[in-house]
Amino acid sequence: METIFSIVTDEELKDIDFCKKLIERVIKEDKSKISQFFEKFNTMFVFSSPEFKNDFIEATYPILQVLSFDEMVQLGKDSIVANVVVLYYFLKKNHVINENTIDILSSLSSLKFIDDPYIYEFIPSINHIEIELDENVVNYGSTDEIEKAAIICGFLLDNGFIERNETSIQGLSILYKYSSSELKLGENVKIVPGRRPTLIEFQKRVSEYRKLVNDVAEEPKFQAFFEKNPMFLNWQTSKFLAEKSFGGEQFPDLILFLKNRNYIIVELEKPGVNLYTRRGNPSQELSHAEEQVRGYIRWAIEDKQFLRSRGLENLTADNTTGLLVIGSHLTPEERKKLDTHNHSVRGMYTIKTFVDILEDNEAIQKNLLQMPE
Length: 373
Hints:
Blueprint: H1 2-7, H2 10-13, H3 16-30, H4 34-46, H5 50-64, H6 69-76, H7 80-93, E1 96-97, H8 102-108, H9 117-120, E2 130-131, H10 143-158, H11 166-177, H12 195-214, H13 219-228, E3 237-242, E4 254-258, E5 263-268, H14 284-302, H15 304-308, E6 320-325, H16 332-344, E7 349-352, H17 354-369
Parallel strand pairs: 1-2, 5-6, 6-7
Antiparallel strand pairs: 3-4, 4-5
């Protein structure tokens, strides 16, 4: 292949059909040489017309699908044209950024020019993608992967490849919440019309919820609030079922239907209880509440037909988790204990205080307020 690359002329590389045949041959004979092709082609690509760039990228896309995404990234991470091809491949394949794409996003960070706005101008027109992430994002990647995914999402949003709506901004806010990076939205970002009225209404809801927390309101008042505002518990909520929907007691307080077709069984306990004893052990109230959540999850899995008849059509053990909301303020030591415990039960359920829910939504509000008009 080295001999072929050495004799190929720029004029020949201006022929899309010739390029396609050359790439097909490289993949067939030695796909590790793809990087050499991109290196050879790089300069001509940069200085070619926008029409040629689009035609080349769209023509090579179906050919390169025989490679895995990781192979594409590794073989083309050092040239501009390869960076463009890899980004186009990712955007073409993924219409939604969710927990299943965290590792893929992370791998994009190795592209040499990923932070250069110049390369995004070379990507052919493509449908925008949406960020659909919730608090469970911490269960689907390492700290390093989440960090890298957050940064890549920021680049994609700033350069116009992510749907600029409230759902995506909220998803990005959650992603950055578990990253040490600061959420900075570029000057190119504009939010779709209608965001401000939505934000004003959201601010009112945050204030209403804050008052409930400060007043240490009784559990029924929080239940009523969450039934009106289920997205406060998870921003991917599309609809929900409340305890009264089941026609009796001994049912979960809420079951959330998420946009990614997952479900969360929610148990609300008293805001005023302590999660830990003076000796630092889990309190009786916390232990009892955890047993309830585990019981509800077992019930949901074992009695799928009952729940499916009420709209939870695809409920399985793999897409159902729990959320226990209990207590309010924690000491730093108690926070450390709870974080460690949540890590040990991740994938099954998560424990949050009513203050945690407030802080989650205040963070989203802060990021929305920082968005330019």
